[in-house]
Amino acid sequence: MANIFTGLSAFPLTPLTDDVVDEQSFVGLVESVVAAGVDSITALGSTGSYAYLTADERARVARLAVDHAGEVPVIVGVGALRTSQVLANVDSAQEAGAAGVLLAPVTYQPLTHDDVFELFRTVSEYTDLPIVVYDNPGTTHFHFSNELYARLAELPGVASIKIPGVPGDAEAARRHVAAIRAVVPEHVTIGVSGDASAANGLNAGCQAWYSVIAGTLPSPAVEITRAARQGRASDAVAASDRLAPLWDLFVEFGGSLRVMAAIAEERGLAPRGCLPLPIQPLDDDQRARISVVVDALGLDD
């Protein structure tokens, strides 16, 4: 089970046209990341705008991802406000042939740690599909503790924990990952997110990178992942540092989603205005700046 949750997992956009999922564009993104050699695909993550889609749309996207991923395993995001909705999404993922599910504690009212534990316990008892714990406080505003990681990791279905970005200092990153590993069984993998810190996370002992950039620009993410997993830590850091202008744009423009959407649109991988409203696209000046960075880094090659 653990080998599905190691290496590079690409999180593609779910492009929309006129408020309808653009299936052709989504399939193109899936096929592109498969061709680049990613280890898995995670459909309907935050980059895939899962929270903005209906249950039927999510079921269709899950099916498209699995149907076009070939031999690459597909993990499907199932988070929703109500546990009953989560379980319905699990059913759709299982019917589509997903290899696992990604579960975030989606909420409007603040959740307690016991609320979140019971959510994961319920899902773990409901399905045989392995579960990735999705710790993304930037979107959910819920903060996991190492104690909660430990409780969740004891559930039989939990296979991986997707942690937020690690510290920039290499030694601090190692201590951070080691503290999580100390409370999480070996069969549960630890995967880093926060693309700018992925090289540090992999070098610090994370077994997976759950990657935004890999969903649209997979080649540099493959390079970083392979270097880190082959023990070439300095090469991984150098490859990540080369992308610093892109990481800086993520910070400046309020996160990675709008930036990656703009890149996908400019490269013809998604239609203009592919994000779900009310999320507004970046303006023409911002898009021009992104294009300059992409060209300078050779990311269109």
UniProtKB/TrEMBL annotation:
Keywords: Lyase. SMART domains: DHDPS. It comes from the Bacteria. SUPFAM superfamilies: Aldolase. Pfam families: DHDPS. Gene3D superfamilies: Aldolase class I. Belongs to the DapA family. PANTHER family: 4-HYDROXY-2-OXOGLUTARATE ALDOLASE, MITOCHONDRIAL, DIHYDRODIPICOLINATE SYNTHASE. This is Dihydrodipicolinate synthase family protein. The lineage of its organism: Bacteria, Bacillati, Actinomycetota, Actinomycetes, Mycobacteriales.
